[in-house]
Design a protein that fits this description.
Layout: H1 2-9, E1 26-31, H2 35-46, E2 51-55, H3 71-76, H4 78-97, H5 112-136, E3 140-143, E4 145-150, E5 153-157, E6 163-173, E7 177-179, H6 193-196, E8 205-209, H7 213-224, E9 228-232, H8 244-256, E10 260-262, E11 267-273, E12 276-281, E13 286-289, E14 291-294, E15 298-300, H9 307-310, E16 333-335, H10 346-361, E17 375-377, E18 383-387, H11 390-396, E19 401-408, H12 411-416, E20 422-429, E21 435-441, H13 445-457, H14 462-466, E22 487-489
The structure holds flavin-adenine dinucleotide.
Flavin-adenine dinucleotide binds next to helix 2, strand 2, helix 3, helix 4 and strand 4.
Length: 499
């Protein structure tokens, strides 16, 4: 109740008050038509608000002045990445098919240019769909670069340099983030994920720098397409922040699929040679690559928005600082998605956009809920998780934690002969029996975890998992048949793995 009052005192419209404020051009002006901006503007328009949105011109590779309606997810993130993961997964499927009786005698060719073309066509199609979604919702679209001039004023610079200025009762910053490259000699020879999704030629020798999910995914993609891949990262294991036991499994699987791992290794220098890019590591190794991908992090798109001049506070990473309702320190200016650097995932940007519109235009102050946000790493095979990792549970819980794990050979591989175990894990509060976290590394992990996430959101107990009837034969049924505790971790102790 008090939060509602605070927002209303701060100038939030109730549903009935959404009638356009006469002295403003718009009730809402959104800068950036990616996941968060599109969702927020459509939802706000649905509540009756007069909404405008601006977005940079379209191209698969972004820059400070290039983007496209649909944003990172659609044009140079989740969607094209997943298309390439699908493409790369066929090579393993072909290997697995042999023991199922498929005679693949002839040489199988992979036509990268065809996949690249089809991927680009698909993102162009989606870009069109997103534009139509906005138009159909009654949102006015502008192409150009938006800047914040004051608490209620936005300036738009169009491609031809024409400037326009608009007033708005509320401004939403939804400008996302862009890949950054570490400052090493020869960094201009490297590429980021933007270019990696649009390479003219498929690399034969790929070097990937980074231990995050984007690095791991591109390593899997290129390996699946037949390249030799060397993956370099600073920590002992890739995927910092994920469950340690799962990180070990992912590392083992990457190696099993033929990716060369270089833990605790950084790149020192890149130089161009006649044979390719010479890569020198801080361990003194040297190798030659056709492409070097830097997947070393992203920075919020705030540099050119004039935010400091408008008085909007940023944190030390350059992200827009917001409260629990996505409001900045300036009461009429809000921000959602990657530009706020909270949980940088598409469904989270969508949730923040919806909550913003409900709060400001729907008369329902709503905070985004970050508990039990599921996510996936689309390595081959994928990893997917929801809730707390073992480490987080041990740190946060007051009492003991029970760990249930199941490691098994997926049925498909018993015939194909592939040596790659699937692992599942449940993290349970010993006292309440509540399932605090779940993770899986193996085929279809993301598809399975989405359902488990609903159970966790409903506060399911281990007993309820156990009383659920399995679907047989499936891998997913293991989640409801893990009867014996793998280990009990006493409160306050360090998490252990037994793999
Ligand atoms: C390679 C890769 C893979 C990913 N895979 C996944 C995944 O599998 N699952 C997942 O959930 N997430 C994934 N993500 C993350 C996901 O794409 C982002 O979290 C999501 O797109 C954030 O949405 P957003 O609206 O905050 O920003 P964006 O989608 O980046 O949209 C911001 C928009 O603002 C525009 N813009 C910037 N400045 C201006 C300006 N001054 N004026 C006008 N417009 C401007 C940009 O052009 C852009 O279109 C991936 C990201 C990458 C890079």
């Amino acid at each position: 109740m008090s939060s509602r009052k605070m927002l209303i005192d701060g100038g939030v419209d109730s549903a009935a008050a959404v009638a356009p404020a006469e002295h403003y051009d718009y009730d809402l002006f959104v800068i950036g038509a990616g996941s968060g901006g599109v969702r927020a503007s459509r939802t706000a328009a649905g509540f009756g608000a007069k909404v405008a949105i601006c977005e940079l011109p379209f191209h698969p590779i972004s820059s400070e002045v290039i983007g496209g309606v649909g944003g990172t997810c659609v044009i140079r993130g989740c969607v094209p990445k997943k298309i390439l993961v699908y493409g790369a997964s066929f090579s393993g499927e072909f290997e697995d098919a042999r023991n199922y009786g498929w005679e693949l005698n002839e040489k199988i060719d992979f036509n990268w240019k065809k996949l690249l073309h089809n991927k680009t066509q698909e993102i162009i199609r989606l870009n069109g769909i997103y534009k139509r979604l906005l138009t159909n919702a009654g949102v006015k679209m502008f192409e150009g670069e938006g800047k914040v001039i004051g608490p209620n004023e936005v300036e738009l610079t169009q491609l031809d340099g024409t400037r326009m200025s608009f007033s708005a009762k509320h401004i939403l910053i939804a400008t996302g983030s862009r890949a950054q490259r570490p400052n090493i000699p020869g960094k201009e020879l490297s590429i980021t994920s933007d270019e990696a999704l649009s390479l003219e030629e498929l690399p034969k020798r790929a070097v990937v720098l980074g231990g995050g999910y984007i690095a791991v995914e591109f390593a899997s993609i290129w390996r699946g397409m037949g390249a030799s891949v060397d993956l370099f990262y600073r920590k002992e294991l890739p995927l910092r922040g994920f469950d340690d036991e799962m990180r070990e499994v992912v590392a083992r699987n990457l190696e099993g699929r033929g990716i060369k791992l270089h833990p605790q290794t950084n790149l020192k220098e890149l130089t161009k040679t006649a044979d390719g890019i010479k890569v020198v590591t801080d361990q003194g190794e040297e190798l030659i690559a056709d492409v070097v991908l830097f997947a070393t992090g992203r920075a919020p798109n705030t540099k050119r928005l004039n935010l400091e001049a408008a008085g909007v506070q940023l944190d030390k990473t350059g992200a827009v600082k917001v409260d629990e309702y996505s409001r900045t320190n300036i009461t009429s200016i809000w921000a959602v998605g990657d530009v706020t650097n909270r949980v940088n995932l598409t469904p989270v940007a969508l949730m923040e956009g919806t909550c913003f519109a409900k709060t400001v235009f729907g008369g329902q102050p709503t905070k985004p809920d970050y508990t039990n946000v599921p996510c996936a790493v689309f390595s081959i095979p994928p990893l997917s998780v929801v809730g707390l990792s073992e480490h987080e549970a041990v740190e946060q819980a007051k009492g003991d934690i029970l760990i249930f794990t199941s490691t098994f050979n997926p049925m498909k591989y018993t015939i194909s002969g592939r040596q790659e175990k699937t692992i599942m894990k449940l993290v349970v509060d010993a006292e309440t029996d509540k399932v605090l976290g779940a993770s899986m590394c193996g085929p279809d992990a993301a598809e399975i975890m989405q359902g488990i996430a609903i159970a966790l959101k409903c506060g399911a107990t281990k007993a309820q998992f156990d009383s659920t009837v399995g679907i047989h034969p499936s891998a997913a049924e293991e989640f409801v048949t893990m009867r014996s505790v793998t280990r009990r971790v006493p409160a306050g102790s360090k998490p252990k793995t037994n793999l």
